[in-house]
Amino acid sequence: MASRMGLIGCLVIVVALLKCATAHETQIDYQVGDSFGWAVPPNTSYYSTWASTKTFYLGDSFSFNWTGPIGNQNVVPVSKPYYDNCTEGPGIIYALPVTYTPPSTGTYYFICITSDHCERGQKIAITILPAVGSPKSSASSLTVGAFFAVLSTTAVISFLTFV
Ligand SMILES: *[C@@H]1O[C@H](CO)[C@@H](O)[C@H](O)[C@H]1NC(C)=O
Ligand SMILES: *[C@@H]1O[C@H](CO)[C@@H](O)[C@H](O)[C@H]1NC(C)=O
Ligand SMILES: *[C@@H]1O[C@H](CO)[C@@H](O)[C@H](O)[C@H]1NC(C)=O
Ligand SMILES: [Cu+2]
């Protein structure tokens, strides 16, 4: 009976570990600015506040959408100096709607280059962290593997005890 309880305990731990290992593997498509979307925001801290309330992982994507009446919204990926001074850098100007998937970790900067939109706060910095589960996955698998080994041993012992 005791080993049976042990077996159940082990199973619970293994299930918990598997859940842990897969926790952040879901890739999220964020609508930048939530329901407001991508346009001149109500204040200059709107998008930095939006980004600061979330943690972004590699594999997540960012949809810049705007369905409101004022057109001419665009998205330009820029480097930090251009983001800081709201100047169009060398690079692509994306028309909306567009979904951008950062190809690696680091901080990405986006601005809208229509008139004074960027100065009025239509700019965002997004920091991408490593996907939890990618660099750590081998360690997690090892841990899970070890638990399965313990589990099998326990199962064999329970079986032998039972017999
Ligand atoms: C900016 O606007 C948002 C949305 O209206 C509001 O929730 C937030 O409190 C405002 N922030 C500041 C600093 O005014
Ligand atoms: C903005 O920064 C970029 C990169 O440093 C620079 O080339 C450009 O001249 C700056 N523009 C203004 C208006 O300060
Ligand atoms: C935002 O744009 C993306 C990419 O075009 C689209 O898949 C998504 O449905 C849009 N979301 C909304 C709320 O319009
Ligand atoms: Cu704009």
Automatic annotation (TrEMBL):
Keywords tagged on the record: Disulfide bond, Glycoprotein, Membrane, Signal, Transmembrane, Transmembrane helix
Cellular component annotations (GO), alphabetically ordered: plasma membrane
Gene Ontology molecular function, alphabetical: electron transfer activity
Residue span(s) of domain Phytocyanin: 28-130
Transmembrane segments: 142-162
InterPro entries recorded: Cupredoxin, Phytocyanin-like, Phytocyanin_dom
Signal peptide: 1-23
This protein's record includes keyword Metal-binding: no
Chaperone in keyword set: no
Pfam families, per database record: Cu_bind_like (PF02298)
PROSITE patterns on file: PHYTOCYANIN (PS51485)
PANTHER family tied to this protein: BLUE COPPER PROTEIN, UMECYANIN-LIKE
Name of this protein: Blue copper protein
Originating species: Morella rubra (Chinese bayberry)
Taxonomic lineage from the root: Eukaryota, Viridiplantae, Streptophyta, Embryophyta, Tracheophyta
